[in-house]
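This part of the workshop introduces the protein records we will be handling. A record pairs a protein's sequence with a compact description of its fold. Comparing a sequence with its tokens is the quickest way to learn the format. The record below serves as our worked example for the rest of this section:
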Amino acid sequence: MRCPYCKAEDSKVIDSRSSDEGGAIRRRRQCAACERRFTTYERYEERPLVVVKNEGKRQPFDRHKLSNGIARACNKRSISSETIDAIVSRIEAQLRDQFEREVPSIAIGELVMQELRELDEVAYVRFASVYKHFADPDSFIEAIDQLKTSK
């Protein structure tokens, strides 16, 4: 594994442990040249998912993009990055179970909203405001009223 700091080719594994509920292996490595430590993740290669947007455009599923969107909704809330990673992993697993190869973007949005509704109501409303394109304050009030009645 190439060192991200000095680009040397040689490194040794210091520690390995399972992560993402057994779907990945987290490895702590140390560079043989500069002796700095870094973390790598090893995952099995899965069939690629393609997201089909509302207008028909297709693009590869991007775990990082999904994580960033959820993190923006959870900004300044007491939600750890590990929790966000777990949400992304659950959503990706559900998508792979439900869809063979092509995933409608609406399915991803609905799964994110389900997860955030259970996790944090403020994050849910933030995500919903972008996802559902709230145009006015009445849309926010309606979403909040739906949250209150669903309890």
About this structure: Helices lie at 63-73, 81-98, 105-119, 121-131, 137-149. Strands lie at 11-19, 24-31, 37-43, 50-52, 58-60, 102-104. The first strand starts at residue 11 and ends at 19.
